[in-house]
Please model this.
Amino acid sequence: MNYKNYPMVSRVVFGRNSFDQMGDIIEPKRLNTRAPFIFLVDDVFKGNVWVTSRIPLAYEDELIYVSADEEPKTSQVDELVEQIILTHKDRPSGIIGIGGGTLLDLAKAVAIMLTNEGEAKDYQGWDLVKRPAIYHVGIPTISGTGAEVSRTTVLTGPDKKLGINSDYTPFDQVILDPELTKDVPKDQWFYTGMDCYIHCIESLNGTYLNEFSKTYGEKAFELCKTIFLDNNLSEEESQDKLMMASWHGGMSIAYSQVGIAHAMSYGLSYVLGTKHGIGNCIVFDHLEEFYPEGIKLFKEMKKKHQISLPQGLCSDLEDYEFSTMIDVALALEPLWENALGKHWKQKITKDKLKALYQKM
Ligand code: NAD
Ligand code: ZN
Model:
């Protein structure tokens, strides 16, 4: 047995208002006055002085607003990298991503592609990145994905949706300020929060589980139950706890894998553009057969927060679209192996997946 030797986020700050410390934290990392910090910021914060006035711009630093309406694409990463190279004389001192999983993943990918040749699509896969990324910082403004701790950046490319999984992907610095999540709309709070819950269920019920993953997974699972089912938290407590649940959920899948909901949700996303959080919920809702206990609680949470998921997403799909969806899902072999064991190919068929998709 050869155990994996994982990198982790090197530094992390946690606390309400810790966002204000960003300037002090990054300034020592400035290479020279021509090497800027590039802030990639979710455009939901455009005009939001409470957030933007606290972003410490100096010298040639640049703030680029990016929409999170669509999930990151490899072409978008390439365009951002080109824009940064063309606008600045020196290679940046660092990339700071401020937003949800979409912005965090973009920041990681841009930091990698500033030091590695070619196009982002060339690096989708496992351990293909050759050179260390430039200094990169993640500041989540919505909790659940675990993108702040993970070793991947999920990108949709010309022929697949797959992460850049590498030792150079994790952030050098993360700033966890739960107060930044205070204005997340309720439905989105639920969808992204459920991403964390689903990470726990898939990790804890997977065949890859070990004590490392289990310890983190159980903590995140417990926090999710407190946040989404018990009725006794203040807003602040709930924000603090969900930020830490996201962290632990992400740590849990670092040393194991996600499972069927994620595999199938990638298929939905690839064909229909369905976003990760809501897509996972739509799929998970139909997986009783695989995760009976997890789904039972999920349905209670949905009911308690009066969330109604879209129905009939796949009702008008053509056969070739189902085929693509199924192929994208089945290509994620480690996820299926984690969920169903080494002989997963004997346990799941294309027809079975099609029948499940038809229900969604
Ligand atoms: P997101 O970044 O797509 O944002 C969802 C919505 O919430 C957007 O409309 C955004 O503008 C809004 N929003 C974010 N913060 C807000 C705030 N403070 N106030 C108001 N609105 C706010 O959502 P997400 O669910 O965090 O991320 C999904 C992405 O994360 C997907 O692209 C997925 O592939 C990726 N992901 C990555 C990993 C990883 O390990 N790298 C893991 C899971 C998911
Ligand atoms: Zn996820």
Summary: The pocket of zinc ion (ligand 2) is lined by residues 145, 195, 199, 262, 276, 280 (CB under 6 Å). Residues 235-254 form the longest helix (20 residues).
